[in-house]
Amino acid sequence: MTQAQAAENTARSYYDSEDADNFYSLVWGGEDIHVGLYETADEQIASASRRTVARMAEVAGITSGTRVLDLGSGYGGAARQLAKRFGASVHCLNLSPVENDRNIRLTKEQGLDGLVTVATGTFEDVPVEDGSVDVVWSQDAFLHSGDRDRVLDEVVRVLRPGGQAVFTDPMAVDGLDQSSIQPILDRIQLSTMATPGFYTAGLERRGASAVTFHDHAAQLPTHYRRVREELVAREAELVAAISDSYIANMKAGLQHWVDGGNAGKLTWGIVHAVKN
């Protein structure tokens, strides 16, 4: 088994678990389970997460009819926001059947199944034709890949000339001795995290231009702190849906992200590039 296959299996088994499904749907923001852009320290997770989607859409200039491929789409919150607000056509690709089932149900309930489609698959082997996509979109998913070079290959392959990649990812800062974030690496069960330089240089090597990293590093510890605060505040009610061991491990894991971000070892932001 390759590292990429092992990472895929790890991520799928994690996100398909009942504990994880309940945690992300009940605590992390509901439909949109990604890092938010916070305007205040105590802002609601869901509103900050929606702001991230709006900001990324602005960066990529998404409008009615834009063909978007969302890699690692989770519950489809971003896809539905893009469809509802801008009239974009969004194809979701995600490895978790449990998350995809919820995505399909919520999309139908909101009357958006004419604009949003959902498929099960991985971003190392994207079942989409060459040059067929206007925007490749992803939020906080590529860190789970065991072959991020292959991910970038696929991102560039499916984009049409002039198409854009816009994505976020929790990253280590450039030049970091990543042994110093071992608890986080252990949690995602991978040997490394990507860095801004890995993504920007990698996209440039593949012929992309106007490659930019919009640095929002302070948002990462803010987001993980807010999720941990929500988990602690609601722990008494959540034990009916989430196991004690999962809650305990999640509180410890979230704190590692907070500490790493506050120590300046981690960063997060929006990567944007245009395919030549």
UniProtKB/TrEMBL annotation:
Keywords in alphabetical order: Methyltransferase, S-adenosyl-L-methionine, Transferase
Gene Ontology biological-process annotations: glycine betaine biosynthetic process from glycine; methylation
The keyword Ubl conjugation is annotated on this UniProt entry: no
Biological or metabolic pathway of the protein: Amine and polyamine biosynthesis; betaine biosynthesis via glycine pathway; betaine from glycine: step 3/3
GO MF, one annotated term: dimethylglycine N-methyltransferase activity
Domain Methyltransferase type: start-end pairs: 69-167
CDD domains: AdoMet_MTases
Catalytic activity, EC: 2.1.1.157
Enzyme class, UniProt record, top EC level: transferase
PANTHER family given in the database record: GERANYL DIPHOSPHATE 2-C-METHYLTRANSFERASE, ZGC:194242
Sequence similarity: Belongs to the methyltransferase superfamily.
Name the record gives this protein: Sarcosine/dimethylglycine N-methyltransferase
Native source species: Pseudonocardia autotrophica
